[in-house]
Amino acid sequence: MYTALYRKWRPKSFSDVIGQSHITETLKNEIKTGRLSHAYLFIGSRGTGKTTCARILAKAINCPHVHEGEPCNECEICKGIDNGTVLDITEIDAASNNGVDNIRDLREEANFNPAETKYRVYIIDEVHMLSQGAFNALLKTLEEPPEHVKFILATTEAHKMPATILSRCQRFDFKRIGADDMAERLLEIADKEEIALTNEAANLIARLSDGAMRDALSIMDQCIAGGSDITTKLVSEVCGIADREYLSDTANALLTHDTAKLLQVIATLYENACDMERYCSELINFYRNIMVARTVKQPEKLIICSDEELQSICRFAETVTLPAAIVIIDTLQKTYAAIKSGAQGRTAMEMALIKLASPEMDARDESILKRIAQLEQALKSGAALQPAAVAAPPKEESPAPAEAVTPPAEAAVPAPEPAATRIENSAPADTALEAEEAEELTDEPAPQESAPAAESAPAAPAAESAPQSLMQWPEILQEVFGKNRLAWTILNGTTAKAVGNTIVVFGTHPSIGDVLAVKINSDDVLEAANAVTGRAFTRIISQKDAGDLLGATQPEVMEDPLEAFIQKAQEGGIEIDYK
């Protein structure tokens, strides 16, 4: 009869237990010195060796040939405990025996002396599942048990244990087994079982098992049935996870905002029966590794993967900013929780990835602010054109001054001539309105008065260095958001002016100057500004650090963005209904 690997290779001595040396050494020392506690509490996640160590401890304290705290595993008692034929060692599953009556039976049985061994040992697994009444029934016996009785309690959720029970036990916390130790153990077992297991596959199994040796052996057992040689591809197929290639394709599509490619990748995975929950988990781990690679100098100490995969992660880390990686991880974690709670996996992943690849689909506050800024800019353009078309329609009809619209100083001089020309060449006035418009255009003195100003054209260079409002500042901040979250946080809500090749930032936050004084922050903002505006800004400073650069201009007063938005909408002819 075939025996599962996790049962066949279950440790039979403390030296076989991996990753828990801080516990096994302590237990061996207690056995060697005879300083045994009456009750032990083993705490840790699944598959870390709690029940295994409990059985080894039960053998060691009863083995007549114990050596250096280790059971001999050769005597009848050791073999009987391994086979489950020694009645003095009792294992209880508290998940199914959690009532008061079960504990009362245990208390009555504990009063009898052991039949074969020195100590009667009770191993209660998942002890946190006991009812409150059962805990109360166990309390007195646990505090002062007979000399021939030892209790070993095991649980995965210590926070559910009553404090009265915790205080009466010697507590041992089992850690998750390290991936390196687990992979080494898997290769050792594979060698003894004559199984071809690659190092990359062992590392992948170790990562998927999440610190649980039992889960790792179960995965390897499943892979053995799937093929003779265990490779990363076979492990991915057996576990229903995405291969490294799919993760790279997903990351590349996110970088290039290729939503069609993302949907194609998900469709391929779905057709191959890939578990979307596992796929999401793998993506989270992938971008977590990118985050680590962006943060530390030696990421190989914190990233569990092969050398080839580490190089790929480092290449992606050069193109994915730290704020972007954090946003992606946050979105994917919310998607993972939604899938766990019952959401349709494929649809949830498609929505999440499209949202990440399409900023305009993002419902976060910063994305909404970007779209409001774009709407404001569109309203500004409309408000500038619409009044001009209504106030002076003849000026738009004349081809001669059309080129003079851009520089206002030059437009003031030729304005009277086209007005007179239009009056002479126009058709006879059919209405009184046309006559009035012609009279207004003919008698208007404003262009004559502004003529001397046009003669001072050589002063244009000074005007170019005068402060000008930087209308694209909201778009620049949106670009900064993807590059430098710290700078965006401080600069969000500010305004800016351009003075030559210098950007002056106006705002009330006290740290604006300090943030811009850091080179990496100022470089990121300047890079975003040059990309959005097409200009070549070389310096960015705060209003307080501008000095005489602003000249006689008054400090800019921060206005309410909502009020400004409403005002621009009204100027553009949009009616606002206040409720």
Estimate percent helicity: 55-70%
Strand order within the widest sheet?
Answer: 2-3-4-1-5
Low-confidence stretches: 383-464, 552-558
Counting copies of identical and different chains, the oligomeric state is single chain
| Number of strand segments | 11
CA-CA gap between termini: 79 Å
* Outline: elongated
Number of helices: 30
Beta content comes to 5-15%
Please specify the SSE layout and strand pairing.
Blueprint: H1 5-8, H2 21-33, E1 39-43, H3 50-62, H4 76-83, E2 89-93, H5 100-110, E3 120-125, H6 132-143, E4 149-155, H7 163-166, E5 170-173, H8 179-192, E6 196-197, H9 199-208, H10 213-226, E7 229-230, H11 232-239, H12 244-255, H13 259-271, H14 276-295, H15 307-319, H16 322-340, H17 345-357, H18 365-391, H19 393-397, H20 408-411, H21 416-425, H22 432-443, H23 446-449, H24 451-455, H25 460-464, E8 468-469, H26 473-483, H27 485-491, E9 495-499, E10 502-506, H28 512-517, H29 519-533, E11 539-542, H30 561-571
Parallel strand pairs: 1-4, 1-5, 2-3, 3-4, 6-7, 10-11
Antiparallel strand pairs: 8-9, 9-10
Tell me what you see in this structure.
- It contains 30 helices and eleven strands.
- With 579 residues, it is of the alpha/beta class.
- It has a five-stranded parallel beta sheet, with helices on one face.
- A hairpin with a 2-residue loop joins strand 9 and strand 10 (502-506).
- The chain is elongated and about 100 Å long.
